[in-house]
């Protein structure tokens, strides 16, 4: 089947998959199987690779330079400890969440619009070259710093469960969702983020939080901080508010 271009074999019990002869393959969807090895080195035309939740310990996509979408998240299967996407400059979508990655270099992936990398062990993340990013989900890692000043297209930023002490979102005026709960933030300025409809900032060390500019807010969580006052009189669209365990 050398002419095979699209192959869907997900949600089975496959332990082996040989696609070495399928040089015309454009899309491979093999998620939720029991694969321990996946060799896509000859599939240089591959644009879409979804191989999440298998038993892979390594994944080599260095020859897949046409790759536009890669999903290798692992919430159920064996975890990847490393992932090199430096040759995949056409990538627009990357989901590598739920692995055991300690590093992730996306500096070459300037076309990225969506990055899911939550539930890993990454301590540093540089997204300064990823100016097309619209969705960045990188919660439950070990980030002490996250600079999103260059990511002005962001509409979705989830960075909860890290070790952030500061977070500057003043340049991210397109944000509609900001989730930064369970960090070590003492200050959070969202005055420029007037498009926000969802703000989750609970379990930090905030003593004040001004949401008077965020009139589109529908969901607002600020519980578990040290707030002594909270004014939501301007937030007439609010349908969910959690502010318990403060000093109000």
TrEMBL record:
- List the Gene3D superfamilies hit by this protein, alphabetically: Ribonuclease Inhibitor
* Protein name stated in the entry: Uncharacterized protein
Pfam families listed in its UniProt record = LVIVD (PF08309)
Q: Name one GO molecular function term.
A: signaling adaptor activity
Q: Say which species the protein is native to.
A: marine metagenome
Q: Which UniProt keywords apply?
A: Leucine-rich repeat, Repeat
Membrane-traversing stretches:
none
Report the SUPFAM superfamilies cross-referenced here.
Answer: L domain-like
